[in-house]
Structure to design on (138 residues):
């Protein structure tokens, strides 16, 4: 599994007055995608945090290509674009399931930090699990 896919049905609460998914809600979809990618790899964020390792977002880039609307079925495709010494970058492609059209593409970057917000190296166990999942940009 280098690319994780998560389906999501758009509800009224996800849309704005114009009837399209509110632009900031894609960051929530990105979070769901990366959380489930990690869970699929056997790594729960909750467990990392209990071990004293946190992954705050320090950078987010989104490119809006086409709107999603109420009741659309979306697929959040998520993969690891880069794994550094003390950071990870996830990439995303939100696609309309029915049309296969890409709606939003983006990335988020997350440093590995301890409870004091000091950078820490990727724990060796985690590096072993995540390295095979890295899919660099072509």
């Amino acid at each position: 599994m280098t690319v994780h896919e998560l389906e999501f049905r758009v509800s009224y609460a996800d849309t704005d007055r114009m009837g399209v998914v509110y632009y900031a809600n894609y960051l929530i979809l990105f979070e769901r995608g990366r959380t489930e990618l990690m869970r699929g790899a056997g790594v729960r964020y909750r467990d990392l945090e209990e071990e004293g390792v946190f992954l705050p977002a320090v950078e987010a880039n989104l490119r809006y290509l086409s709107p999603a609307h109420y009741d659309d079925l979306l697929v959040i495709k998520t993969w690891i674009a880069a794994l550094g010494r003390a950071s990870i970058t996830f990439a995303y492609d939100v696609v309309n399931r029915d049309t296969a059209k890409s709606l939003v593409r983006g990335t988020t970057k997350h440093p590995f930090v301890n409870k004091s917000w000091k950078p820490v190296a990727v724990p060796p166990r985690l590096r072993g699990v995540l390295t095979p999942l890295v899919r660099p940009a072509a």
User: Anything to note?
Assistant: Helices lie at 25-40, 45-50, 124-130. The chain has a mean pLDDT of 95. The chain has one domain: 4-132.
